[in-house]
Amino acid sequence: GQILARADETDVDALSQVIAEAFFDLxxxxxxxxDPAARRAIFPAYFRLYVEHAMAxxxxxxxxxxxxxxxxxxxxxGAPGPPDGYSARxxxxxxxxxxxxxxxDAALEAHHPAAMPHQHLAILAVRPGQQGHRxxxxxxxxxxxxxxxxxxxxxxxxxxxxxxxxYLRHGYTDYGPRIDLPGGPALYPMWRRPHDPRHLxxxx
Length: 204
Description:
The chain is of the alpha+beta class. It contains 7 helices and 8 strands, in the order βαααββααβαβαβββ.
């Protein structure tokens, strides 16, 4: 069956490509880069920034076939900020579209819970063609089990109503108002309280 793998540096390119393919047609992706050819050129290197950062500062989970990836980052007070040189690397990758990527980051940052330590599910992506095989569920469940034992909440931004419904099934609830990208689609901030595995019956 599917088992979890900890990704390492040799996986960076493959996993960046998985995210680029999985996210290619999402409304926020089309808002970021409207031209599909430009999106295809920019996305693998753009998501590489995220994969490298999560590998350095957080946790990258994948599958033995490298067909799905979850990027988890510590967040809240005292958490690491963006990687060194992020703005310059982003500008170099995105060129004239840099302002749009900066607006995207700013919109998400404005809705991020700052007061409480938590884990941020920055990205969960499953390679197209593998979707619907419970691969993403496997990655989520493994991480949630650890967070439950450690008593750590989780936060994410769902990319649309479909992914919001998926995360509702995994114990997330809406967190504050939705994130409206300027002149574009909405993302949905969501929060998951840890469930104490020893006291499942005690919670409402």
